[in-house]
Please model this.
Amino acid sequence: MWEIIYENCGKKNITQEELALKMEVSRQTIISLENGQYNPSILLAFKLANFFEEFIENIFIYEGEDCNEKK
Model:
Protein backbone atom coordinates (compact mmCIF):
# COMPACT_ATOMS: atom_id res chain seq x y z
CA MET A 1 0.00 0.00 0.00
CA TRP A 2 2.77 2.45 0.86
CA GLU A 3 4.18 2.36 -2.65
CA ILE A 4 0.88 3.48 -4.12
CA ILE A 5 0.45 6.36 -1.69
CA TYR A 6 4.12 7.34 -2.05
CA GLU A 7 3.99 7.21 -5.85
CA ASN A 8 0.75 9.17 -6.02
CA CYS A 9 2.14 11.85 -3.71
CA GLY A 10 5.07 12.11 -6.10
CA LYS A 11 2.76 12.41 -9.09
CA LYS A 12 0.76 15.14 -7.36
CA ASN A 13 3.98 16.72 -6.04
CA ILE A 14 2.72 16.90 -2.46
CA THR A 15 4.27 15.96 0.86
CA GLN A 16 2.90 13.67 3.54
CA GLU A 17 2.01 16.75 5.55
CA GLU A 18 0.08 18.32 2.67
CA LEU A 19 -1.77 15.07 2.02
CA ALA A 20 -2.63 14.79 5.71
CA LEU A 21 -4.06 18.31 5.69
CA LYS A 22 -6.16 17.59 2.59
CA MET A 23 -7.44 14.34 4.12
CA GLU A 24 -8.02 16.01 7.50
CA VAL A 25 -5.84 13.48 9.34
CA SER A 26 -2.47 13.63 11.04
CA ARG A 27 0.81 13.10 9.25
CA GLN A 28 1.28 10.09 11.51
CA THR A 29 -1.88 8.55 10.01
CA ILE A 30 -0.41 8.92 6.51
CA ILE A 31 2.87 7.38 7.68
CA SER A 32 0.98 4.49 9.29
CA LEU A 33 -0.97 3.92 6.07
CA GLU A 34 2.25 3.87 4.07
CA ASN A 35 3.80 1.39 6.50
CA GLY A 36 0.76 -0.86 6.45
CA GLN A 37 0.25 -0.37 10.20
CA TYR A 38 -3.18 1.20 9.86
CA ASN A 39 -6.31 0.32 7.94
CA PRO A 40 -8.22 3.46 7.02
CA SER A 41 -11.86 4.09 7.68
CA ILE A 42 -14.04 3.63 4.63
CA LEU A 43 -14.45 7.41 4.42
CA LEU A 44 -10.69 8.02 4.42
CA ALA A 45 -10.16 5.25 1.88
CA PHE A 46 -12.69 6.85 -0.47
CA LYS A 47 -11.22 10.33 0.07
CA LEU A 48 -7.74 9.06 -0.82
CA ALA A 49 -9.00 7.17 -3.87
CA ASN A 50 -10.89 10.23 -5.11
CA PHE A 51 -7.95 12.53 -4.46
CA PHE A 52 -5.54 10.27 -6.34
CA GLU A 53 -8.14 9.56 -9.05
CA GLU A 54 -7.75 5.82 -8.49
CA PHE A 55 -10.15 2.99 -7.86
CA ILE A 56 -10.28 2.21 -4.16
CA GLU A 57 -9.27 -1.38 -4.96
CA ASN A 58 -6.04 -0.15 -6.54
CA ILE A 59 -4.96 1.45 -3.27
CA PHE A 60 -6.45 -0.75 -0.57
CA ILE A 61 -6.52 -4.49 -1.10
CA TYR A 62 -7.98 -6.54 1.72
CA GLU A 63 -5.70 -9.50 2.34
CA GLY A 64 -7.36 -10.84 5.46
CA GLU A 65 -9.75 -13.66 6.11
CA ASP A 66 -12.15 -14.58 3.31
CA CYS A 67 -15.54 -13.10 4.17
CA ASN A 68 -17.29 -16.04 2.47
CA GLU A 69 -15.63 -18.73 4.57
CA LYS A 70 -17.92 -20.61 6.91
CA LYS A 71 -16.76 -20.95 10.46
